[in-house]
Amino acid sequence: MSDNAIAVSNLTYRHRPDSPPALIDIDLHLPRGSRAIVVGANGAGKSTLLQILAGKRLVSTQGTDIRIKGCDVFRDSPPGVTFLGTEWAMNPVVRGDIVVSAFLDSLGGYRHKKRRDRLLDILDIDLDWHMHAISDGERRRVQLCFGLMTPWDVLLLDEVTVDLDVLVRDDLLTFLKDDSETRGATILYATHIFDGLNEFPTHIAHMRLGSLLTAPASWPINDGSALISQFSSATPLYRVALEWLKEDRDHRKQLEDQGRKTRGARRNETIPSDSEIFYKKYDYSH
To answer: What pLDDT does 1 receive?
Structure first.
């Protein structure tokens, strides 16, 4: 495991003891300096996996081994790990009336001025913004600046580029790729936005309903790739993700035919619901 920045073996996780597993027998190994994209539908377990790797969710360690930089994430928390998720922007603390320059300094920005200033330019941040008076997208930019201005060895990203415009997102991904290549740092990135990502990853992985269907496979696809049996070497990442997500949807529909709770419209119901009866009774629009 010493050659891997991230190493997970035999990970099964339940949100509650009586609930079905959110993650099922996950084995994931990423070499140092790699950049892996995790593809999967909503509910596939991507966020849960990243939160566990970040030490934000405790798991039973019996038979499970979860290491970052060779350190057990629960018993010997490794330094140099940064996790950035979507929940940050909703925290009331970061929605207070504080000026961005003071906010970044309070988080140690003065210690990393060169990286901070480069990120301020990339993310197009106004240091005079007040955190309570800016948009969610602008607040997301501040989050990324504070999270990335300290050099990291392992970066765990959970959908944090969703609020960015296409230009800022492209500049940020270029920065992350250069940073990874220059310092040999590792990135594990869960996203639903695949435009402009084709040149970014060194590996891609596929999760479905808590299982890792395709362990991180090398990207781009080449003759020795685990993906070559399904895709050609010319297939772009967007097309790979689209095919995988279609397969996920078809698989879920098969499970629904076998008794799994269905999604979508309930066309076979002949008895109206209680709410429908109530609202029809007091519907004066006609």
So the answer is: 43
